Amino acid sequence: QVQLQESGPGLVKPSETLSLTCTVSGDSMITYYWSWIRQPAGKGLQWIGRIYTSGSTNYKSSLKSRVTMSVDTSKNQFSLNLSSVTAADTAVYYCARESVPYCTNGVCPYFDYWGQGILVTVSS
Amino acid sequence: QSVLTQPPSVSAAPGQKVTISCSGSSSNIGNNYVSWYQQFPGTAPKLLIYENNKRPSGIPDRFSGSKSGTSATLGITGLQTGDEADYYCGTWDSSLSAGVFGGGTKLTVL
């Protein structure tokens, strides 16, 4: 059974960097994408970005200048850094495994395993 | 403002059927596959449907998915009070090179 667990500080000061780590257990990280998704209180899901085990990344365009993701397959971990945070970055942050099988007629990614989520509050 | 459009809420009586729509464009739903997620308050989303209409192991066949053009639909039959949750559609947007979600639909079973 694949399990993901987010860890990191629950409180970050404005203008500082939010740093989270996701630890994966129960399966190899190879051949999957690993994603970060956040959810502000009372709002919908927002895709932040993803990283492949090769290190290749895709980021949401509006966050691209502030986001960095990394992966360490030897530790079965991947990480998110979000710099220059403001109150608007306060949210529950989820890490998730993204399966991207081969499909004809388009791309078919889906998030099949999720962490429990970690609330990160940006406040002084 | 979400890239994919869902109704904010839907409702139906126990035992009835409900559908939740998800509307997009040619750069996302029109040319890629759709997945659906169920989320109860305070918990992580759970995969319900992938590749438009496939159910992961353990998801009952009361849940179904379909896609036509630039829209997708989640169907739930035999509604139960335990189905009350938020439902999200998601896909890949090839123009944005990014994952996108709908704004979510709150299902109430009256």
Can you describe this structure?
The complex is a heterodimer of chains A (124) and B (110). With 124 residues, chain A is mainly β. Chain A has no helices and eleven strands. Chain A has strands at residues 3-7, 11-12, 18-25, 33-39, 46-52, 57-59, 67-72, 77-82, 91-99, 110-114, 118-122. Chain A is globular and about 45 Å long. In chain B, strands 1, 3, 4, 7, 8 and 9 form a six-stranded mixed sheet that branches. Chain B has a three-stranded antiparallel sheet with strand order 2-6-5, with no helix packed on it.
Provide a brief overview of the structure.
Chain A has no helices and 11 strands. Chain A has 124 residues and is mainly beta.
Quaternary: heterodimer
Percent in helix of chain B: under 10%
Low-confidence residue ranges of chain A: none
N-to-C SSE series of chain A?
EEEEEEEEEEE
N to C succession of SSEs of chain B:
EEEEEEEEE
- Biggest sheet layout of chain A: 7 strands, mixed
Q: How many DSSP H or I helices of chain B?
A: 0
Structural class of chain B: mainly beta
Could you name the ranges of chain B where pLDDT drops below 50 across 5 or more consecutive residues? none
**What's the rounded overall pLDDT mean of chain B?**
97
Number of strands of chain A: 11
Radius of gyration of chain B: 13 Å
Supply Rg of chain A: 14 Å
Number of strands of chain B: 9
Structural class of chain A, by secondary structure, is mainly beta
Distance between the termini of chain B: 29 Å
